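yo

u said u wanted the structure for the complex thing, so here. seqs first:
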Amino acid sequence: MSEIYYATSTGPVNIATLKYWGKRDKDLNLPTNSSISVTLDQANLRTLTTASCSSKFDNDQLWINGATYPLDGARSKQVLADLRSLRKEVENENSSLPKIATFPLHIVSENNFPTAAGLASSAAGFAALISAVARLYKLPTDASELSKIARKGSGSACRSLFGGYVAWEMGDLANGEDSKAVQVADKKHWPDMKAAILVVSDMKKDVPSTSGMQLTVHTSDLFQHRIKEVVPKRFIEMKKAIIEKDFPTFAELTMKDSNSFHSVCLDSYPPIFYLNDTSKRIIKLINLLNESAGKIIAAYTFDAGPNAVIYYEEKNEKYVLGLLHQFFSHLGGWESSSFDPKNAVIPESFPL
Ligand code: DP6
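structre next:
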């Protein structure tokens, strides 16, 4: 009788506050700079994945929200090969375990956020897949070790192996063994931190990140300055701001890094534009809000698309979400709290 083995796990979405943009090795997905992200609340945004394997399955197969995909892309194949080779090691060490490493895998994934929301789902997807297969294969589940496999699936996915505040250390070894995610602080460390996503557009990105970042690496002069001078300093400063729960510094670095990332995109040849006019209006609004508050109480950041993620502290929610609801309520979105727009506080003299 051929049995079916299965295990289930989840993977959260992470949003970088210090952006990964550029690969020094595109096969191993080794980055040109270290990066930092915040993992968003799983109750609202996560991929739920069940991995199963059986000798009676015909081939490796993936389902995402009910649609079937073959698991034959180079990156997926690499991730599964790594997981299978770890399982073989486990089987060799423990002869009583069933020999399942070579069985075809069926991976069934479901996102609890609308796929059309334009959110980066590949990080959550790879993280969930790797956690589920690691559980199925009874692999040692050190998150940093698994992050090295996730990294090969999609760079930013390595950070989704942890909750809270996460750093992806770029490493310097050619084989990538030291290019892994580590936790800077867990979610409980800074419970006041909140995030809101404004869905400016749910269209597919203009230029996919993988090809966009390679264009930047090869054509932008500004890029060398970013990876050599700007990011290494910011990486240290941002980790310190997180550990000290220093919101103004964290927020300023986050906004500056989003600006720097979009500048090297514009400096690529031909240029890459991810922000649109609505994104620029959101940037302006957050700057005006901070100016009128007399201190930085909100930060914007944009990935490879026009959608905004706004970080703020809960104590300032009535101002930050109040203003966003006032001016951008026509946009879809997601908030890590249940804010009632009736509680909005808009300064009378607000300059818009
Ligand atoms: C702008 O991780 O999607 O979101 O490694 O080629 O799969 P690949 O790229 P990906 O790039 C993410 C880029 C970013 C910044 C970030 O998340 O750090």
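Residues 75 and 153 are 5 Å apart (CA to CA). Residues 16, 19-21, 29, 35, 120, 122, 154-156, 209-210, 303-304 surround DP6 (CB under 6 Å).
cya
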